[in-house]
Amino acid sequence: QDAAKPKLANVTILATGGTIAGSGATSTTTVGYTAATVGVQQLIKAVPELANVANVSGEQVFQIASESMTNEHWLTLAKRVNVLLAQNSVDGIVITHGTDTLEETAYFLNLVVKSRKPVVLVGAMRPSTAMSADGPINLYNAVLLAADPSAAGKGVLVAMGDQIHGARDVSKTNTSTPDAFKTTELGMLGYIQGSKPYFYRVSTRKHTVDSEFDISNLSALPQVDIVYGYANMNTVALDAFIAAGAKGIIHAGTGDGSVAARVKPGLVAARKGGAIIVRASRVGQGILARNGEANDDELDFVVADTLNPQKARILLMLALTKTNNTKELQRIFYNY
Ligand SMILES: NC(=O)CC[C@H](N)C(=O)O
């Protein structure tokens, strides 16, 4: 180590697959390519500039397209992250991930990582073989962010398109364009410019070291499913999930989480049968008002606050590992 040079941080890249590790037939193939073909060492080799910002090592944790991510994958990944971050020799972690469920994995980790050290998720919208692939610059940004002390203690982060997003509120908002990741109304946390992160805000909600959730001894999570609200909705999917043993249902309702007249008795029956009902909204923005579109006190329902349905599912699964009490569950939804 050159004494004049500042010591570089040690960043471990955990690769899970996705388009960032995808390859297509030609340089103009941006759809119809194969995700999860390129290995972690190849990803690192493709960006020699990483060596300027961190001492990087890589581990291939999975090699999948992220629509195939399961609860079991999340438990495996989270346990590995916690083991690595407990080591003095690891300063930060970058997780390369498919973009389809990236926001879900980020929020899961945000709730179960037991460290203040930076954890940064990153993906790409264009495969590695495409003209103007976004993977290399995104990976470079993610590694420098994970190596930067300013990223510590802010919860799990997402680095996409020169922007820093918080795990709780970021979403994929476009099927295919490179600027797909947005924190629409609550706002992203900052930018990465000229190889430096700049933070402007943080989430006020609990995460990581302040979280009450502990997955270290879990090998499975309770079954929670999502039913989607739409005109002409019926209870067929709801009834099937309950029959299959769902412990919780996220009702991704229309508007402010409104419930169709012919669906409401099904939700009430499911609650009476022991399942937890969380009202969320398919709208994507805004607070879901408790006792607004339904009398939650009387029906013993929980509301998702501002969480989108897929993130409400994650919080409910983790919350159900601690309690079945709906007052407690509602407290959790207002705190995370
Ligand atoms: N842009 C992407 O990463 C999408 C590829 C794939 N569907 C995935 O999520 O892994």
TrEMBL record:
<dbReference type="InterPro" id="IPR037152">
    <property type="entry name" value="L-asparaginase_N_sf"/>
</dbReference>
<keyword id="KW-0732">Signal</keyword>
<dbReference type="InterPro" id="IPR036152">
    <property type="entry name" value="Asp/glu_Ase-like_sf"/>
</dbReference>
<dbReference type="InterPro" id="IPR006034">
    <property type="entry name" value="Asparaginase/glutaminase-like"/>
</dbReference>
<feature type="active site">
    <location>
        <position position="99"/>
    </location>
</feature>
<dbReference type="GO" id="GO:0006528">
    <property type="term" value="P:asparagine metabolic process"/>
</dbReference>
<dbReference type="GO" id="GO:0004067">
    <property type="term" value="F:asparaginase activity"/>
</dbReference>
<dbReference type="InterPro" id="IPR040919">
    <property type="entry name" value="Asparaginase_C"/>
</dbReference>
<feature type="active site">
    <location>
        <position position="19"/>
    </location>
</feature>
<feature type="binding site">
    <location>
        <begin position="99"/>
        <end position="100"/>
    </location>
    <ligand>
        <name>substrate</name>
    </ligand>
</feature>
<dbReference type="InterPro" id="IPR004550">
    <property type="entry name" value="AsnASE_II"/>
</dbReference>
<comment type="similarity">
    <text>Belongs to the asparaginase 1 family.</text>
</comment>
<dbReference type="InterPro" id="IPR027474">
    <property type="entry name" value="L-asparaginase_N"/>
</dbReference>
<feature type="domain" description="Asparaginase/glutaminase C-terminal">
    <location>
        <begin position="223"/>
        <end position="333"/>
    </location>
</feature>
<dbReference type="InterPro" id="IPR020827">
    <property type="entry name" value="Asparaginase/glutaminase_AS1"/>
</dbReference>
<dbReference type="InterPro" id="IPR027473">
    <property type="entry name" value="L-asparaginase_C"/>
</dbReference>
<keyword id="KW-0378">Hydrolase</keyword>
<feature type="domain" description="L-asparaginase N-terminal">
    <location>
        <begin position="10"/>
        <end position="201"/>
    </location>
</feature>
<feature type="binding site">
    <location>
        <position position="66"/>
    </location>
    <ligand>
        <name>substrate</name>
    </ligand>
</feature>
<dbReference type="InterPro" id="IPR027475">
    <property type="entry name" value="Asparaginase/glutaminase_AS2"/>
</dbReference>
<dbReference type="Pfam" id="PF00710">
    <property type="entry name" value="Asparaginase"/>
</dbReference>
<protein>
    <submittedName>
        <fullName>Type II asparaginase</fullName>
        <ecNumber>3.5.1.1</ecNumber>
    </submittedName>
</protein>
<feature type="active site" description="O-isoaspartyl threonine intermediate">
    <location>
        <position position="19"/>
    </location>
</feature>
<dbReference type="Pfam" id="PF17763">
    <property type="entry name" value="Asparaginase_C"/>
</dbReference>
